[in-house]
Amino acid sequence: MKDTPINHDVVRRLIAESQIPSIGKATIREVKKLINQIENETGQKFVRMEMGVPGLPATHIGVEAEIQALKNGCAAIYPEIDGLPELKTEMARFVKLFMDVDVTSENCIPTVGSMQGGYAAFMTVNRMYKEKDTTLILDPCFPVHKQQHAVIGTKFESFDVYDYRGDKLKEKIESYLKKGNIASIMFSNPNNPSWICFTDKELKIIGDLANQYNALVLEDLAYFGMDFRKDYSKPGMPPFQPSVAKYTDNYIMFVSGSKVFSYAGQRIGMMVISPKVFNTHAPDLKRYYASDLFGKAMVYGAIYSLSSGTAHSAQYAMAAMLKAANEGKFNFVEEVKEYGEKAKIMKKMFTDNGFKIVYDKDENDPLADGFYFTFSYPGFTGEQLLEELMYYGISAISLAITGGRNEGMRACVSLVLRHQFPDLEYRLKKFYEHHPVNSD
Q1: Which of 91, 202, 250, 255 could hold 210 in an S-S bridge, CB 3.0 to 4.6 Å?
Q2: For 369, left (φ over 0), alpha (ψ -120 to 50), or beta?
Q3: Are 398 and 375 in contact (CB under 8 A)?
Q4: Exposed, middle or buried by CB within 10 Å (0-12, 13-18, 19+), for 95?
Q5: What are the structural domain ranges in the chain?
Q6: Would you give the DSSP letter of residue 5?
Q7: DSSP state of 76
Q8: Other Cβ atoms within 10 Å of 354 Cβ, number
Q9: How far is CA 339 from CA 83, 208, 221, 321, in A?
Q10: DSSP label of 300
């Protein structure tokens, strides 16, 4: 038996007791629970990379604004379903100043995190036209988006973009759109889990196809501005956060308060619907909603039925953070650059010990260092690697549950503290020692 950093017998027993059919295909939360149990029994801490959650303090501007709002009595009052007026105004300003995209405050709706925005979009977009009932998801993707489709009972198709970057993307997406059943194209940019970033050429391809086939693009910008290869932090000045909205009016964007503002606990996000889509009449919507106007169906049908609006105090927090960013008083990108700096160090530790980076380029450019990175090890599938690494006190998730490449895993850098780096390096070296790359 190998001398693993974490007691081999304990790990093996708890894996068996978990009754998870395949550890490699376990959900993120199942992996988290299992790691908690191993830590509790062994008293040893894992290097935890399974959860994509912030690891920095919440932005103080938001905290102070929310405290004041609570003191002023907002907790006793229902918020408007479509959002606090001053928040909606700052949302529209933010989109213009940091993306160079024109929207009105009416088109901006606060949601219970960007996840709720996606859920509401799937509920509404796939019901606009009777013949279009399917989402095309550009994998790899955030696994919960597919889970949301299953819960709603709506359809999706997907493919891994790894082999279809650049010009190849057009033919591949069009092969799905030609079927006539695709209502929307969903992707994240930067991508969770691979951290690829679509180039302007690729965004134009997607936008042009959306125009040609009358499909909506659902653009998840949860990691807004976090491609640290360029500085997207200056309001009203290029470069701007890349977006498909530059190439089509058929879009809905989602921006998370959780990541770039480190405000995850209050579950606040932004849904931005293009003016064209917001004001589109789609009679088939009346099968499910009181109005055939998309914006009304979204707000007073989907959002209302899901949560009756977003927490009142969190809206004041988001409004304050956006206002400070819009006025150039708060550099939200600078606040989260720590993620990219840690990723650069951690990726080298992995590659120095026999691991490979799975998603490593955006077309011809090296991938950015950021919130996530992907890795593999010769001779292992991602599912096998997830389980084997548990004996070494390293946790991540298999790309298999994201629609990504089977040999890979996703690592999130946010919860790994710098003082854990020596321990991570020791454990990776031990893994390398026990699994020589050139062995039979």
Answers
A1: 250
A2: beta
A3: no
A4: buried
A5: 8-45+336-434, 60-326
A6: S
A7: G
A8: 18
A9: 31, 33, 17, 20
A10: I
CATH class of the domain comprising 8-45+336-434:
alpha beta
Determine the distance from the C-alpha atom of residue 53 to the mean position of all C-alpha atoms in its chain, rounded to a whole number.
10
Instruction: Give the residue ranges of DSSP H helices in 267-381.
Output: 275-278, 294-296, 304-307, 312-326, 332-335, 337-351
How big is the chain by its Cα radius of gyration, in Å?
22
For domain 60-326, give the fold.
Aspartate Aminotransferase; domain 2 (3.40.640)
What number of residues does the chain have? 440
Q: What is the 3-state secondary structure (H, E, C) of 378-431?
A: CCCCHHHHHHHHHCCCEECEEHHHHCCCCCCEEEECCCCCHHHHHHHHHHHHHH
Which residues have CB under 8 Å from 171's CB, separation 6+?
Answer: none
Contacts of 110 (CB under 8 A, 6+ apart): 83, 84, 87, 88, 91, 268, 269, 270, 271, 309, 310, 315, 318
> What φ, ψ does residue 48 adopt, rounded to 5°?
-95, 115
What percent of the chain shows pLDDT beyond 70?
99
Give me the phi and psi of 366, to 5 degrees please.
-60, 145
Q: How far apart are CA 244 and CA 252, in angstroms?
A: 10
**Amino acid residing at 295:** G
307-365 pLDDT, tens per residue?
A: 999 999 999 999 999 999 999 999 999 999 999 999 999 999 999 999 999 999 998 89
Summarised one tens digit per residue, pLDDT across range 172-199 is: 999 999 999 999 999 999 999 999 999 9
The contacts of residue 408 (CB under 8 Å, 6+ apart) are 358, 359, 374, 375, 376, 382, 398, 399
